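Lecture notes, structural biology module. Today: joint structure prediction for complexes of two components.
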Amino acid sequence: MSTTTGTPPAAGDTTAATLTSDEHGNIELGKLTLAAEVIGQGTVAPPAVAEYALWLGDDALVLAQNLGWWISRAPELEEDIAIGNIALDLIGHARSFLSYAGSASGRTEDEMAYFRGEEEYRSAQLFEQANGDFAHTIARNFIAGCFQHALYERLQGSHDETLAAIAAKSIKEVDYHVDHATQWVLRLAGGTAKSRRRLIVGFADVWPYVDELFRDEPLNDELAGVAVRQSTLRPAFDTRVAAVFAEAELEVPVGFTATGGGRVGKHHETLGPLLAEMQVLARQFPGAAW
Amino acid sequence: MLDAEMEVAVRRVWDIAATVTDPEIPVLTIEDLGVLRRVDVCGTAVTVTLTPTYSGCPAMDTMSVDVRRALATAGYNDVTVTLALAPAWTTDWISEQGKIKLNEYGIAPPTGHSARGTAGPVSLLLSVKCPRCSSLNTRELSRFGSTSCKALHECRECLEPFDYFKVL
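The predicted structure, tokenised, for the full assembly:
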């Protein structure tokens, strides 16, 4: 990743000058411009990279939209706030990924989020799973967090500087998400007989969708060195899950494996209604602002 | 333009941008926060680069608008505000003065440094000092607080709840 410290922005341009925050070391020039009005001036994603950014952006966006439902419905006020904040972080990650994905076709982050149909979404089906009860949500968040953590850890080393920057930014926040889910897994598993039973059911219900997260796609061959090959993330994921499950005295569920297909636009039945709710305002009142 | 003159011109823009405060924590300027990263001046065009604290922090939009407004008031009309993600912001960039201001405002500043890159995710938490009575006998109520950057703690001495700016 190239860094510049106090370097004039354009060589030979004598009317240009720069000031950087001197106490904070290296400064990266704005590789990624998030403001919608200046899209086109930022880095443009090559088509295959844009498709990959779509996978990760849609994962984050769909999970954020699911989590938003809990605000005012969580078991305690602190959880309303915690889940709301996690959703907000995820929306931030989605904005970065989707802005970058949209740069390939001249679309804004809002066009990416609100004006793509269900079959154009590329989220994995785990992120689309219904909230269910609180234990289901925790089970899904735990899996999602462990997956994203393993992924961003490696994506920081991507040859694509924008993807690497988004991953390096996001992983710090995902640290907190995994921690949140882990605390709840331990608390529910070690709580009452009822909380433990519900958590076990929660994990059993979402586990069929774990496999899809680690399946390689043809796009991986095209993006060697840029995207992370999903199958190589499984050991890191399994290690973390095993450690928490051991402490919680839980067993990895056994059962069927879902066919998946989210990365090629085949989605779980929950995605359509989720998008309908998320997109209705933008579609009914284009350009609405408040 | 001479280099020295240019330096003055850039410093002038920096100082104006540095007056903008965090809308959620009005005692902190974006310079104190380490959010103001870079100023470029090219002819009459000015570019100010900010970095977001948390990815989804809604205060970033307000800060961008406020920077634009502060510069417009000072006569700069060709202003671009960009957001740079890399290197990722960390609480280590909050200035010492900023930490003192936070504490005086009633928000405990981050304790310790960002652990990222040195270890795995650790739940180990250093004692957080109560910003009211300075007691270290405090406890975490919730790791997520009123904004993305804060956790909620309470003091067991003075019994007051308080916000803690958590390490990132």
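Point to remember: The longest strand of chain A covers residues 16-20.
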